[in-house]
Amino acid sequence: MMDQERILKVTKAAEKFWLFVTIITVCGTVWIIYTEGFEDNKFLPLIPSLAGIWYTIRRIFRKRLERDLGK
User: Is residue 7 packed enough to be buried (19+ CB in 10 Å), middle (13-18) or exposed (0-12)?
Assistant: First the structure.
């Protein structure tokens, strides 16, 4: 089993990954909707929404883990 510091490091990396994905997908979605119009792409904002949800979940998990580890 991984030690607690390694688990925390992996959790922080996953949180940063989802933040990056959220930012990139928001920018891409805004660009596509701006250039092609909203009507043909009305479900596209679902992608950054899901990425944002995963970022939030990872952040909550990390904070709970830090609290449990006494950090």
Answer: middle
Sign of CA dihedral 51, 56, 60, 65: positive
What average pLDDT does the segment 40-64 reach? Answer: 95
The vertex-29 CA angle with 57 and 41, nearest 5°, equals 115
Model pLDDT for residues 6-15, shown as the tens digit of each residue: 888 999 999 9
Which amino acid type is present at position 12? K
The 3-state DSSP composition of the chain as helix, strand, coil percent (nearest 5) reads 85, 0, 15
The pLDDT confidence band at residue 56, using thresholds 50, 70 and 90, is very high
